[in-house]
Amino acid sequence: MKKILLTLTLLGSAYFAGAQVICAGISPAPIAQNYLFTYAEPDGGWGVADLTIPNTFVQDTLIAVDDLSGAAGNQGCNSSPVGAYAGKIAVVFRGSCQFGTKAKNAELAGAVGVIIINNTAAAPIPMAGGTDGGSVTVPTIMMTQADGNALLAEMANGPVVMFIGNKTGFYQNDIGYQNGNVSFSKYSSVNKMTAQNASEYSFKVGGRLYNYGQAAQTNVVVNAKVTHAGSTVYDNTTTPAPIAIGDSIDFMLPDFSLATYPVGRYKLTYTTTMDNADEYAGDNTLSYEFIVSDTLFSYVKLDTVLNSPVTGNGSRPSGNYTSYKQCINYSDPNASRVGVAGIYFNFATNASDSILLPGQEFVVSVSRWDDVFTDLNDAAFTNAGSFNNVIELANGFYYYPNVTSEDSTVYAQFDNQVVLEDNKRYLFCVTPSENKIFFGMDDSYDYTWNLETYLQPINPLNVEGGTGASPWSVAGFGSETQPSIQVRMFPAAQLGIKELNTIEGSAYPNPMKDNVTISVAESGNATVVVTDLAGKVVATNNVVLVNGKANVATDNLQSGMYIFNVALENGKTAQFNVVKQ
Asked: Is the dihedral of CA 366, 371, 374, 375 positive or negative?
């Protein structure tokens, strides 16, 4: 494909605006990479320095905390001998005591930094300082369980050196991207029914590149490439440009668009090069993936197996409130081609709240948002005045069963399927009956640049019973994190057929292992088509329903959520979700 060369635009910016906080392995080579993490902040009840300030960092050798606390590993809940971790970054497990207590005990034993390893497979969470956090002055972070265990395994082979903090000005030659400062696909799930050609779907390609180093750089080049099914479908590069010390450049390349959009996964990758060798290349590449789907729409990152919403952590409103609902916004000039059937979503609970998901009620809804405004810069738009005409069109209820795991994505259908209208705004929302339940969120995709580019709402939040002037917030929990919501769509022409021929169906046990029994209110020959959440067929079975039941072998399926589509000889159909353990 021909590469189009465009010019980079110089944009002066202070170091602080491009400050980059990282957790990176320095040595040995097997651990030399960037790690996903959260960190203690001064406004979170900690006495630590603000890591967003340039040259605020620690780089040193790791040492495992050994205080014999906690059955699941050393948790740092007890004090250690003075000097036990002198000049080292202490590594400790999350567990039964407060984060601030762990960090304080490590610091009192001489640690210059603290790494807390998460005790579950979930992403790191924000850390409150608690009782002791205010007296902690050393950088304190949390990383994933898998990454932490990998570091501990490498420590058994010899010294491991890590960098925690702000790398601005640390290296001589260092340029890089920031998540949230580039454009990418408007949605993580693009529905093929409304994106049939270049005129119906495209997105901006561009962003900002920073010079974090101590030296000016010349001949800096940015490349953007999109791949699909093993082929490159977009490849464009800027003309070389300089970046001064402490400066940045804004770049813009041709919009991404295709004559047609085959179903499947696409990957956009930004890379950069310059004349000098970059001394920290960990942020020279930034990638985002999206899918074109027959049935799905969402903003949140999708897993690579079932294209289901990824959940890294959970969020809920702060302060006093009676209830809340998390929504995502949708509008399309060709929306009349689709109907909406239901919503996939994810919630989690905190053990300290003594709340369990089984038995909890959740309400899913679709509403037409009839307030008139062009974009978020429109003088007619305000949080208080632009959510006055939200008209609910359909809803549905979901009750967590006792067998559903706390971290699984579930699906709830609307009681009535709704065909959408062109150029109307819609809100797809989920409301928990218990207001202390956390909504599943993921911060892999930061939509800040996209939000500033398109100026359209993404994830509005409604909080009832709070103290705000309006229960609505157009920004939700922020553009940096997305709710684990995915909408299931179908061709609008199928609405009447679906209502006439659809019958109830279910499966047990659910979650299943290697076999499952399906149950529908019919008997006779039937075909069972099993698809993943993106609509890809993963299994087909011909069965005979006896008294409405038949056994289906599922030993060839991987763990995850599947949709069972049952079609009988008389033309009636049933559809239901099943989780494979």
From this structure: negative
Cis peptide preceding 509, ω within 30 of 0: yes
Domain closes at, from 242, 264, 293 = 293
The rounded distance, in Å, linking the Cα atoms of 288 and 426 is 25
Q: What range does the domain containing 239 cover?
A: 172-293
E strand segments, 331-437: 338-345, 347-348, 361-369, 390-399, 410-419, 425-432
Strand, helix or coil for residue 60: strand
Q: What is the pLDDT of residue 456?
A: 96
Q: How far apart are CA 504 and CA 79, in angstroms?
A: 59
Bridge partner list, 540: 529
Per run of 10 residues, the mean pLDDT along the chain (length 581 residues) is 32 43 92 90 93 91 78 76 94 91 95 92 84 96 92 95 92 92 97 96 97 95 97 98 94 97 97 95 94 95 88 83 95 96 86 77 95 92 85 91 61 90 97 90 92 96 83 90 94 70 82 88 85 73 88 87 84 84 80
pLDDT for the residue 131: 94
Q: Are residues 90 and 216 in the same domain?
A: no
Q: Are residues 360 and 486 in the same domain?
A: yes
For every residue of 291-321, DSSP letters joined together read EEESSEEESS-B-TTT-PBP--EEE---SS-
pLDDT in the model for residue 230:
96
176 and 96 in one domain?
no
195 token code pair: 């994106």
As a whole number of angstroms, the distance between CA 528 and CA 560 comes to 18
Q: What count of residues does the chain have?
A: 581
Torsion angle, CA of 101/106/108/110, rounded to 10 degrees?
-160
- Is the domain of 184 the same as that of 218? yes
What is the distance in angstroms between the CA of the first residue and the CA of the last residue of the chain? Answer: 43
Asked if residue 316 belongs to a domain, the reply is yes
Q: Tally the domains of the chain.
A: 4
- Alpha-carbon distance of 235 to 321, in angstroms, equals 49
pTM, two decimals, is 0.79
511 upstream amide cis, omega within 30 of 0 = yes
Distances 179 to 21, 227, 250 between C-alpha atoms, Å: 12, 20, 14
Same domain, 348 and 263: no
Single out the residue of 126, 151, 205 nearest to residue 27, CA to CA: 151
Residue 305 domain-assigned (yes or no): no
Q: Give CA 484 to chain center in angstroms.
A: 7
253 found inside a domain? yes
What whole-number distance in Å separates Cα of residue 27 and Cα of residue 32? 6
pLDDT, residue 105, reads 94
Q: Which residues of 70-86 are buried (b: 16+ CB within 10 A; e: fewer)?
A: beebbbbbeebeeebbe
> Using CA atoms, how far apart are residues 369 and 330, in angstroms rounded to an integer?
10
- How far, in Å, CA of 273 to CA of 218, rounded? 10
